[in-house]
Amino acid sequence: MTPLLARISGLSVSYRADRDAAPALDGIDLDIVAGERLAIIGESGSGKSTLALAVAGLLPRSAVVDGRIDWPAYGKAPLPGRDYGFVFQDAGASLNPVLTVGEQIAEVAERHLGVGWFEAFGRARELLERVRIPDPDAALGAYPHQLSGGQRQRVCIAAAICARPKLLIADEPTSALDMVVQAEIVSLLDELVREDGMTLLFITHDIALASGFADRIAVFHKARLVEAGSTFDTLAHPAQPYTASLIANHIDLDTPPLVSAGPA
Amino acid sequence: MNAPLLSAAGISKTYSGASRRVAALDNASIAVMRGETLGLVGPSGSGKSTLARVLLRLIEPDAGTIDFDGADLLAQRGERLRRTRRRIQMVFQDPLAAFNPRATVASALDDPLRIHGMGGREGRQAIAAGLLERVGLDPALASRTIHEISGGQRQRVAIARAIATGPDLIVLDEAVSALDVSVRAKILELLVDLQREREIAYVFVSHDLAVVRAIAHRVAVMDAGRVVEQGSASDVVANPSSPTARALVDAVPRLAARPGNS
């Protein structure tokens, strides 16, 4: 029997500001299995980011929530930072611009690991090395704006895994990065999750990117869960036309060119 | 062999900060033939957007020459430049930022027609309606404001505005990067159709080599302000000769499986 990390049942979310608008999530049932890498795939307005926020307990107070999320692995709602880590799309906005990178990671260690400041800083240095920041000692004293977008996202990942959470939630963590950096960050996440036996909830619009490492994918469209299954089966045998259209519209290096070799 | 529609040679641009100088463009040269799509691809900070803006005369280079249809583009000023601008149009990633969000679709299309003196008021309305139809939008959308319509519709309006003046060249800077895949596929198709129909050349800037390969005839790969590799799109993808191109090829996510071939 596979241990369950979380069970989402009948989850609906709407944002009060637009009461007349369609709900952001509508009757979602989805299990998150402990230790799996689960990708949530969706286009804009699919509800994928709302799902990430709901799982993290980070929905705005104004959100109207129906249904429930149970956490058999914790026995209670997980604590941010300690039980789960969250990596956002915009690494620049998730870091405090006036604190050094070292201070921000050490703060997580101090709060959640119950260690002193000196030890917390040691943990921060060790993590910067783990996320493969080129010069960890220099990075400890650097401010976020002094780093590139890819390096900032590495720092966010270091802070997110600092307290050794069981679950890592990453919401479009590479969408603001170029493709070469995206590939590096995805392989880093994959490696960290494997090494630490974490569960990964990876939210993305890119079905191909997810297919490179996710065990299962769950496809969302217009607030509903379209289908969920093992990555290979879902791609090879999509049960729903929407999933098939996502695959058909994906452009990679095997896609036939739209233009012939010479100009028109 | 025909002369290129546009050729930029030896373009350099350096930005000076308080403590250091950054070469955004370093002796970059590209050429685009009439009716051809040149993909400009490279990592963040490679200079591809800066080069695109130089071609649009939005950024003045420190060195280099640009020939557009036999004339020196960088020497043009005033009325002469305005006449050329009509022939070189642009589409950016975020049409919400490119338009006044409170302007109506109609006025967004009317602006270029009016500025370039194309027809009287009623004539321009008819042209605008025709443009909307051509890019696959309901002409009734004309009275909506830019912020009321969807991202895909906005990008269609941006394309309608770009083709309004009958350009020979459109510079597209990450024009499909923010769109959902289903919308993106349709916009790319529209661009290809318009090119065939009107012999428009595109400079298509993107960080996504797969999209560039799908739409471009030729590709110029940029890194650190330089053009490090140029060739047909299929050659660059199949046999990348520079480390930059190799890294871009390797970084393209591949579907782990597809329906029908498992």
Question: What key phrases describe this protein's structure?
Answer:
heterodimer; A: 264 residues; alpha/beta; Rossmann fold; 2 domains; six-stranded mixed β-sheet; three-stranded antiparallel β-sheet; 10 helices; 36% helix; 24% strand; globular; B: 262 residues; four-stranded antiparallel β-sheet; 10 strands; membrane (chain A)
Biggest protein-protein contact in the assembly: A-B, 43 and 49 residues
Ranges of chain A where pLDDT stays below 50 over 5 or more residues in a row are: none
**How many structural domains of chain A?**
2
Largest sheet of chain B: 6 strands, mixed
Structural class of chain B: alpha/beta
Total DSSP E strands of chain B: 10
Uncertain spans of chain B: none
InterPro entries (chain B): AAA+_ATPase, ABC_transp_ATP-bind, ABC_transporter-like_ATP-bd, ABC_transporter-like_CS, P-loop_NTPase
Keywords (chain B): ATP-binding, Nucleotide-binding, Transport
Protein name (chain B): ATP-binding cassette domain-containing protein
Family (chain B): Belongs to the ABC transporter superfamily.
